[in-house]
TrEMBL record:
Belongs to the major facilitator superfamily. Sugar transporter (TC 2.A.1.1) family. It is a multi-pass membrane protein. The chain crosses the membrane at residues 12-34, 54-73, 80-98, 110-127, 139-157, 172-193, 262-284, 304-321, 333-352, 372-391, 411-433, 439-460. It comes from the Eukaryota. It comes from Rhizophagus irregularis. The keyword Membrane applies. This is Sugar transporter. It is found in: Membrane. GO terms for cellular component: membrane. Residues 13-464 form the Major facilitator superfamily (MFS) profile domain. GO terms for molecular function: carbohydrate:proton symporter activity. Keywords: Membrane, Sugar transport, Transmembrane, Transmembrane helix, Transport. Its main location: membrane.
């Protein structure tokens, strides 16, 4: 019985992780195709600014959801927070899929966003608290991979339902997003409480039972169980005594240089969005239209291929990120993405003619020859593949590994919210940029990518293979402690 439980829980939490990633990714991807569907455009006639707000309303919700997650998960626990997030998501999903007015659509997107943002904090936290420590590192890359699977699925569903000649064309993809959420709702009932949270709420006996069921077929006295329990207990006591009580502590300089680490975490998350990846993820069909694909079906097909490229190119990261290191990955990715964007912008600038598309209500570029169209499409794929092996996973890995335990929760909720904030801004302004300065949009992102590669080279220390204590040496004010040592030495000598 015990061992069955281990497998069921282990399996369910792994599946939970995958479903969660798929839900996150599906939600990011699904809207891009919908915005271009004829039936959607008939019911929701919108220009660039309105399109931006349909995309960005979800992301605004995500920002607040991520900020609220820390408090909620401490109050009601991880398990029930996942449940709340999934139920809220279902409500948001139903509102979107059944909407007939802009107001209902925006409300549905904001509500779904609150859930996505909340879950983006809690699922990884819960995962890391119930899984054996050997596999914790891999989880971050795996989560990124399931996000890309979700994006790819959504692109292909959009492509498939485009063929339907009724409003179901856009409603079905929105109904489908509820499926993984319902599976999460049901699955949560079978999941155990996080042992870490139980100990933090003085429910030690229950924590030992959960650990025993997860790790040793129900044997509460097994060494693994007792050791892990002791470790958790020590951690909790430690955190209660010295953990950061307020967000102000994130601004402290001190010998540990917390402020520097927070800034590095915040900037790497903002940079991840400023690469322009979501310009492509949210507006791919329109971008393919600039690349010379005339009909909607071929644009959605190219978008589907884009989803596959993104998914497949994440695999090398899962395998090699720990060997290659963070810095070379981020720098090479930044330079490759920057070059691709600059090439795309230059081709559009030199071979394109601007025109106004009456049916879509905005400006596009017409490319005068097939060669330049193909080149643009190829470089969009090169850009996406370069993001997928580098900034996609590493943008999340780096902030997860640089903070000392006592401030990790607070620091990560700030860095995660920052990712959503910049994601929101990109979602909002990109359609306006694509309509007004078209090729200039690509040049702006291209320049950002190159500058960010330089910033990584100059400011970011390599964190590959470093333990928590080594992180302190890496980021701490080494000069200051050296001076201290020197002074002490001199004093002793005197
Ligand atoms: C980013 C998302 C992005 C996705 C694309 C994630 O790491 O945070 O904003 O849409 O990668 O695969």
């Amino acid at each position: 019985m015990g061992s069955v439980y281990v497998y069921v829980c282990g399996g369910l939490s792994a599946i939970g992780n995958v479903f969660w990633g798929v839900l996150f990714g599906y939600d990011i991807g699904v809207i891009s195709g919908i915005l271009t569907m004829p039936y959607f455009r008939k019911e929701f006639p919108s220009g660039p600014a309105k399109e931006g707000s349909i995309v960005a309303s979800l992301l605004a919700g995500c920002f607040f959801g991520a900020l609220a997650a820390g408090y909620l998960s401490d109050r009601i626990g991880r398990k029930y927070s996942v449940l709340v997030g999934s139920v809220v998501f279902v409500v948001g999903g139903i509102l979107q899929a059944s909407s007939t007015t802009f107001a209902q659509m925006y409300t549905g997107r904001v509500i779904a966003g609150l859930a996505v943002g909340e879950l983006s904090m809690i699922v990884p936290l819960y995962q890391s608290e119930i899984s054996p420590k050997e596999i914790r590192g891999r989880l971050v890359s795996l989560q990124q991979w399931s996000i890309t699977i979700g994006i790819a699925i959504s692109f292909w569903i959009d492509y498939a339902t485009l063929q339907i000649d009724s409003p179901q064309q856009w409603r079905i993809p929105l109904w489908i997003q509820i499926v993984p959420a319902i599976i999460l709702v049901i699955g949560t009932f079978f999941l155990p409480f996080s042992p870490r949270w139980l100990v933090d709420h003085d429910r030690d006996e229950e924590a030992i039972t959960v650990l025993a069921n997860l790790r040793s077929k129900g044997d509460r006295n097994a060494t693994v169980v007792q050791e892990e329990y002791r470790e958790i207990k020590e951690n909790v006591t430690f955190e209660r005594e010295i953990a950061a009580k307020s967000y102000w502590e994130l601004l402290k300089v001190g010998p540990e240089n917390i402020r520097r680490r927070v800034l590095l975490g915040v900037f790497i998350q903002a940079f991840q969005q400023l690469t322009g990846i979501n310009a492509i993820m949210y507006y791919a069909p329109q971008i393919f239209s600039n690349a010379g694909l005339a009909d909607n079906s071929s644009r959605l097909l190219a978008t589907g291929v884009n989803g596959l490229v993104n998914m497949l190119a994440t695999i090398p990261a899962i395998i090699w990120i720990d060997r290659l290191g963070r810095k070379p990955t981020l720098i090479s990715g930044g330079l490759l993405m920057g070059s691709s964007m600059i090439i795309i912008g230059s081709i559009l600038a030199t071979h394109g003619t601007k025109y106004f598309d009456e049916s879509l209500g905005k400006h596009f570029v017409y490319l005068d020859n097939k060669g330049s169209s193909y080149a643009v499409i190829v470089f969009i794929y090169v850009f996406v593949a370069s993001f997928a092996y580098s900034w996609g996973p590493t943008g999340w890995i780096y902030p997860a590994e640089i903070f000392p335990l006592r401030i990790r929760g607070k620091a990560m909720s700030v860095t995660t919210a920052c990712n959503w904030l910049f994601n929101f801004v990109i979602g909002l302004v990109v359609p306006i940029l694509l309509d007004s300065i078209i090729w200039g949009t690509y040049l702006i992102f291209g320049i950002f990518c190159v500058l960010m590669a330089a910033a990584i080279y100059i400011f970011y220390p390599e964190t590959k293979g470093k333990s928590l204590e080594e992180m302190d040496n890496l980021f701490g004010n080494v000069q200051k402690s050296k001076n201290l040592e020197k002074n002490e030495g001199e004093l002793e000598a005197a």
